[in-house]
Amino acid sequence: MKWIFLSLVCFAGAALAHNHEKGDIQIRHPWARATPPGAKVGAGYLEIRNNGSQPDRLLSASTSVAKRVEMHVTEHAAEVAKMRQLRAFEIPARERLALSPGGAHLMLVDLARPLQKGERISMTLRFERAGEMEVQFEVQEMGARHPRH
Known about the structure:
Layout: H1 2-16, E1 19-22, E2 25-33, E3 41-50, E4 56-62, E5 66-77, E6 80-86, E7 89-91, E8 95-99, E9 105-111, E10 120-127, E11 131-140
Parallel strand pairs: 2-11
Antiparallel strand pairs: 1-2, 2-3, 3-8, 3-9, 4-7, 4-10, 5-6, 5-9, 10-11
């Protein structure tokens, strides 16, 4: 019985590591893709839920593994995908914003080193209303389409 309890506690701790909350903002399943040696860019993904009655905006992000983090959206027109940088991500009240491959994402520019599968990278997210949040991104394999926990 003791081992079952300890296993459940460890499992719950691992699950909670993928969710972060501050004020009305909840971050779910932050993850990034592993990068090959020499790569200068990487990408981060997550879901942002705004449980409040006021809209919020993700204004910026930063991490020690890249010189800068940009907010991008991928637009598709005439079978051509094109990335466009945004000044902020809008999160309407009582809505969610999913950052995922092929859509909105955080672009890690000028990587200091390759991102390796299994590691966790720390990123600071700055919201207009909620303020700063420290979030741990789990690095998945190259080419991953969704987080695997």
